[in-house]
Description:
The protein is an alpha/beta fold.
Amino acid sequence: MATRMTTSGVARAYDRWAPVYDLVFGPVFRRGRADAIRAAERIGGRILEVGVGTGISLPQYSGANRIVGIDLSDAMLDKARARVRLHGLDHVEAIAVGDAAALDFPADSFDVVVAQYVVTACPDPERALDEFVRVCRPGGEIVITTRVGAATGLRGSIERTLMPVTSRLGFRTEFPWSRYADWAMARTDIELVERRPLPPLGHFSLVRFAKLRQSGEQPR
């Protein structure tokens, strides 16, 4: 069975998820969302949330920051816009359709880029990660919550077996840490500053990359 993911296919999948997304994934990812927002707000300023979805995270950001949210799914974004109106979230600068792998922003536009449970839903994850770095200013951070798959063993076999199903649902089960490590090793302008497991069961992680102010400079 095919496991190739496409941008249009992911958009359709999350259009279908939109009516039940908060109910299904809200409790499961609550801790990861809170930890990602805390990490982003250590730097603060103008924050891009890629894959903002239904906007479930938006009320948690401090009003001192300016938030831009993008997503592929119009149905998800309709819920995000309704949430902004309902809660009077004046710190939300914009909610718009956008592709993680082709961000419609100039370089160095944001102090922080947040991607919560998004990278494994991207048809081209490495290209999306490159875009996160491009639009993040030097000295800023890319804050990611992500599934990290098992490279070997029974869990790895199960994840590979599930891929034909989960790819149609809009996400990957098979995504070993080596994909992040290999991507980061190929760049000279970022540094991994944190990687720690998140619930449930440690299958997810909070990952932070700092964008260096100049080549070779270590983050604080």
